[in-house]
Amino acid sequence: MSQPPRSSSPIDWRQVSGLLQDIVGPEHVLADPDSIDRYSADALTPYRAYYADAAFDRLADVIVRPADTEEVSRVVTFAQKRAIPVIPYGGGTGVMGGILPVDGGIILDVGRLNRLLDVDPSSMIAEAQAGMVLQDLYDGLKPYGLMPGHDPYSVPIATVAGTISTNGVGYRAAAFGPMGDQVVALEVVLPDGRIIETRPVPKQSTGPDLNHLFIGSEGVFGVITRATIKVFRQPEANAYATMEFADFADGFAAVAEMAALGIKPTLLDLTEDDEGILLHLLFEGYREGVDAALKRTTAICKTAGGWSVGPEPTLDYWRHRHDSALNYRETVLGRPRAERWRRQWGRTFDYLHMSLPTNRVLEYRQRADEMLAARRIHVVEYCLWSRPEFFSMLIVPDGDRRVDGRDGYDADVRANLAAGVDEVLTLAQDMGGVMEYCHGVGIKLHHLLERELGASRGAMQDIKRALDPAGILNPGKLAL
Ligand SMILES: Cc1cc2nc3c(=O)[nH]c(=O)nc-3n(C[C@H](O)[C@H](O)[C@H](O)COP(=O)(O)OP(=O)(O)OC[C@H]3O[C@@H](n4cnc5c(N)ncnc54)[C@H](O)[C@@H]3O)c2cc1C
User: Fold this and answer.
1) For residue 95, how far is its CA from the centre of ligand 1 (angstroms)?
2) Which residue, among 285, 325, 301, has the nearest Cα to 250 in the 3D structure?
3) Please, which of 47, 79, 130, 248 could form a disulfide with 84 given CB 3.0 to 4.6 Å?
């Protein structure tokens, strides 16, 4: 354990709830069994948390819903003094178990901090509160002719701070980068309750950029309360294109050449599944730039062996890009855990998102294929998303069958899938890559993080100890 043990004296939760009510008001402290149940899990189902079963046994003790930064600070200060865990909670849509209260404690829902505070079209920045849902951000920017750069499947359900804290990747990442790249400045409540603000400039030479302490940090170093992010003009022109390839390696060659030349489509998705190998492309921006990028990209793809199948497949793909999250919002979000786990995924599968040096991606695919085939695990989809380095595999084990709730699965099939997943994730690490580029670590990948961080883990632990002496912020995460 890197952190000093928390006080072993039992916490009087009735008293704690009363004191929290004094801070945020009685109606914003929830301790009823239904709320505790709903808040104690995100979109990770127990089936896929292969080595973290026990994390689902511990529930939160109380939920607080502060109204502003001041209240967040008072809650965190209170918790630090009593060594009570605090788990920052955005939309609860993470797929790695990042908000699971593995030691119980207070879930701090930033959902009431949901306003767009400022839009500055000349500086091309906007200021939003932490709990603002991305769809509301899109809607708020639209009247200004602007849009954010982050466009994940989960636009209808994920929040500004949740996407910063996982450094998520979306459909427009080929042009604008992941959510972390959108961050210009942050307001953060540190684990001891202090409020800090970074400055809204694109670059500084006055010490390290502290924004990066919080980007992708899953809430372990502070609670983000406000973010200034880059915004972009709604494009004056756009062009959709779909290229088909006979071989994934040919598509990969085209994508790598585009990246090397500096061509940045908005959308880049090379997918191989049982319907073939398609490269979906969308170019957005000013007319001459769009035309030139489309022309050169088409030539690159043809040289690599591809052929055009017209814009329609990509138009259709683009129109439906948020469907899975809309469906999730209708059928899963906010439901009791057991119901979510029953309805969420009908079948056993896993979806892996590795990042590798470009020159190792095809070799990695071949070696991972061999490892998975030996375990009778089928890859039903390979994908490059946004960059040649971002490689994903959707895998399904032999003997796959319906998963009903938490325990209705075949233990041998699951153990085999778990071992296969670990083999290919550690292979990515051993080949110079990382095991996840998109969703964070949470509890699902926690057991492999120490291996990936090496000596950097000690430095991270030192920072954590200095900022969070009682180890209250999201304990059990990021190998801290
Ligand atoms: C249908 C569906 C589609 C998805 N598609 C994508 C996709 O395309 N791309 C992608 O990247 N992800 C995707 N995800 C995963 C998920 O939406 C992202 O991980 C998202 O970034 C999580 O945002 P959230 O607001 O729900 O965060 P939460 O799940 O609430 O939290 C995520 C992490 O951030 C921390 N956190 C939350 N708020 C704060 C705060 N204010 N301060 C500090 N830490 C905080 C939490 O403690 C936790 O560790 C998808 C999920 C679903 C269910």
Assistant:
1) 7
2) 301
3) 79
**473 C-beta closer than 6 A to ligand 1:** no
Q: How far apart are CA 121 and CA 119, in angstroms?
A: 6
- Kindly report whether the global pTM for this prediction surpasses the value 0.70: yes
Neighbours of 265 (CB within 10 A): 26
Nearest Cα to 87, choosing from 95, 98, 77, 74? 98
Contacts 24+ apart (CB under 8 A), 197-200: 200/123, 200/125, 200/127, 200/228
Residue 167 is encoded by which pair of tokens?
């450094």
Residue 73 to residue 188: CA distance in whole angstroms: 9
Which residues face 243 on adjacent strands?
A: 279, 308
Tell how far the Cα of 262 is from the centroid of ligand 1, in angstroms: 30
Give pLDDT tens digits for 131-162: 999 999 999 999 999 999 999 999 999 999 99
CA distances to 314, 352, 368, 371 from 381, in Å: 17, 10, 13, 16
> Nearest C-alpha to atom 10 of ligand 1 is from which residue?
168
